[in-house]
C-alpha cells in the first residue's frame, strides 16, 4: 500500500467510527492523531500514515500528545509552517542587496529587518557592508546574495513578492512594489522581515485560512507546490497579529518578531 493509499484508508476509517458496532472501544492512537489533525485544519492531502506513524507535509512526525495540543481550546498560540526546502547548513552568510537607487526608507527598513534575524546560525547583512567603508576592515564575503528589487510593474494588490529556498539556497529575489517606500517605517520593516522569512523557507502562519489576518472569506493557499510542514515546537492555532508571517499586516505592527516567530526560526536555524 502506498503512503497516499494508507492515509485515505485511515481517514475513511475515522469517518466510520460512529457507525461501528463496538462504539465503546476507544480508537487507536493513529486514528486519533489523524482525527485531531483533521479537526485542527490540516487537509487530508497533507496527512500521511506509514507503519503506524503519522506524518504531516511528508516528513514531520506528529505524536499523539502533539495532535491533542493542536485542538486544545484557548491555547492562544500560533502554529508555524515551513516549505519542503530549507537553506543548507553550508550557507552561513547571506547579503541582501538593494539597488543603489532604492529610497532611503527602503534601505533603512532593510537594515532594521535584518536585525530581526540576529542570533541565528545564519548571518544576514544588508548591502553595502558597513565594513567596506572602514580602512583595514575587509568586507564580508557572502555565501549567497539575495537581490532586492523595486518593480513599478508589480501587479495591483501585490505589495511584495519573494522566492522560497531551492537547491539548498535561500530564495534569490525579493521584489517590492513602487508604493512600499511611502509606507510607515514600521510597516516597511514588517514587510521586509516577512519577505526575508519566505526566502528562508517560512510559509504564511495562517496559510490554511488567510481570513484570519486578511479578513473576508476563508481562503486556503494549500501547499503551493512547496509544502506546508508544521515546525515542531510552535503551538497550534492562529490569531490576527500573532505572527509576522501572517498573510496580511496589521495596522498596529511594530515590525518586530513575536515569541513564536523566534521559536520557529531557532528551530530551523
Structure at a glance:
With 269 residues, this protein is α/β, with parallel strands linked by helices. Helices cover 27% and strands 14% of the residues.
Describe the structure.
The chain is of the alpha/beta class. 27% of the residues lie in helices and 14% in strands. The chain is built from 7 helices and 10 strands. The protein has helices at 3-15, 29-39, 64-70, 104-115, 185-199, 211-214, 259-268, and strands at 47-50, 53-56, 60-61, 81-82, 93-97, 123-127, 144-150, 160-162, 173-176, 229-230. The strands form 3 sheets. A 5-stranded mixed sheet has the order 6-5-7-9-8. Helix 4 (104-115) links the parallel strand 5 and strand 6 (123-127). It is globular, with a radius of gyration of 21 Å. The two termini are 35 Å apart. Residues 1-26 have low confidence and may be disordered.
Question: How do the strands and helices of this protein lay out in sequence?
Answer:
Blueprint (H helix, E strand, L loop, with lengths): L2 H13 L13 H11 L7 E4 L2 E4 L3 E2 L2 H7 L10 E2 L10 E5 L6 H12 L7 E5 L16 E7 L9 E3 L10 E4 L8 H15 L11 H4 L14 E2 L28 H10 L1
Parallel strand pairs: 5-6, 5-7, 7-9
Antiparallel strand pairs: 1-2, 2-3, 4-10, 8-9
Helix pairs in contact: 1-2, 2-3, 4-5
